[in-house]
Amino acid sequence: MSDKDNQDWLDLLAGQSVPDADPNTVHDAQIFRGALLAHADRLENDSEIPYPHILANVLSRLETKEIRKTPKPTSWISSLSQTLKDVFASLVPPPKVVWAIPAMALVLVVSVIMYVVFLPKNSIDTTYQTIYAKKTDEMVDELREFKFRWEGEGDNVFAFSTTAQPSQAAKAFGAGLLTEREALLGKSEVALPTLFLPATEETWLKTQWADDFELGRWAVLLWTASRFHRDLPPTFWDEQRWIFSQLKAAFVARTDNEAKKVLSQLENQIEPHLEQLPTENNPKVYKELSINLTKMMYFLAPKPADEL
Fold it and tell me: Rounded to two decimals, what is the model's pTM?
């Protein structure tokens, strides 16, 4: 980013108007500010950090990817820090003040923004932020009622066979489904069942099944968007087609049977409908996409014990 882009981004994050800003800069800043605004009224104590599950993904990627650009000088970081303080001051209601936010929380938020500025964007995280910022009570109710294949009807009980366990790909996909549904419901931490935990790493994003995990996350987000699409910007669907192309390419590069099953679902159940969006004249496309996503999530998710 140029010095002007950096300053424009900071000004936009602080809520100022920048008529000549680059559209991509405006897009990034508006999404991040919208996410903060959406979360501001949910702050219950000074230590809470917005979007902790995204932060976990960010920190995980920071361990494995190099920063592609030379860090900005200290004065730029100081400017960013001050802007964040100004933003929080405008978001946190009295009697809370920005200086009450712990230094560690501020550092972590800066880390998120450094990731947005310097490292490749995770479009799935961006999709999450867009949907979360438009969350309604109706959306929350539907997400709470939505049950995955392995969940018990009454008590949301996990029931898996102790002898015939699902594949690693299915576990990662299931973990992604559960993680994103709970994140959209506003839960800062998701307690995955033991079976859904990766065997050798602390997160699926560090394993060879990272794409299965991300596919699970995206499936929940796309399902939610297909049911609550009225206020989404037209560019939202361009971003979803981009995510689709990246996921499809990742599974095309694999030769395992699990990847072949995923490709069949993506190409036959999702792609034909995604290509038609957004649309005002044919609303049934959204409904059909929602139905097919439900089928895909069921087909790829781990099976409960009574189906094995």
Answer: 0.62
